[in-house]
Amino acid sequence: MRVTSRIKSLLLLAAALFAACVPSASATVTYYVGKCAGSPHYKTISAALAATPAPDVVEVCPGPYPEQIVITKAVTLEGIFTANADQVFITVPTGGFTTNGPADCLNVQVCVDSAIGTVNISNITVDGHGNGVLEGNPVVGILYFDSSGTADHIETRFQEGTLNGMGVEVNGNANSVTIKNSNLHGFDGVGIFAIDNSDFGNQLTVSIERNTVVANPGAQSGIETVAGASVSVTGNVVSGPGVPAGSSCTISSCIGMSIEQAAVGSISNNTIVGSAEVGIQLVAGVAGSTMSVTSNTILDISGDGIEILYKTGGPLQSNIIVQARNGIDFVCNAVNNVSSNSISAIHSLGLANVPSGLNSPNTYYNVPTLYSSSGC
Length: 376
Description:
mainly beta; Pectate Lyase C-like; 33-stranded parallel β-sheet; 2 helices
């Protein structure tokens, strides 16, 4: 059958109208919080996240947002600059944290909970002042729970008062999270805490890059990771946690960085400064672990600059340790790849608890005793 030109025109018009009514699959859905920018806009971050269709991007105007946020879908949440202001800060909700949300998000200010897809958060401050959480219970600024994404240029502050406050927590199962270019301070537990919660272990990938972490005196640690398929801690500055005045650290507290049971990865080019009990602590290993500890600078430590609590297959080299009780404590582990470290201004031992016969060539300056095998 021959189709006339009129019918052709009608068919083309119908197709164009249909296409106009169907949104493009690649179109980005962007919502705004506050009235500083475009539309549609919402009063709260939670309302924007819950809107339909689900947003790809939520841009937040400067100002305080007293709410507890739960994210379950892929999204980019970012603070924006406008009218000579740039700070978006999420505060504790009026009346305190809700107990009606997901169990994983209890006492969490921004909770990324089993999200489908990648969740990226940037240019946001999370303020835990006045959280009202009872001592011993955790309070967390940002949590990635079984979720992947990147936290970039974020600030967490005043997650404290409970002796278990954390700036950022990554609690994962086969997910990947990057925390970078951020400032974490005012916490009394851990600044950045990452733990692999998978049944088989060693499935979490976490990268901690170029952050500044300032711990309260007596806090547990600045950066702490437990297990993981790949752990990279690079270019961070950790201050403290210092020893509280008139008291001492417990066996698990006052540690600059604590790395436990990581399969592969590196701790490199970090600076740990302050009177922490231990600068870098390697807690426990897994079979075939190749974690490396290289080119870190460790200053003003009340105990050990580096403490080796397990035998790692990766190198421990080219670190600078200045002013500590002991430079490197082997804890009697026969680790053969410790070399080329610069150890100076040590109060007691350059190398402590070294297994008999172990060779560890390093450079020493102003060290009263280079090494000791006492206790091994």
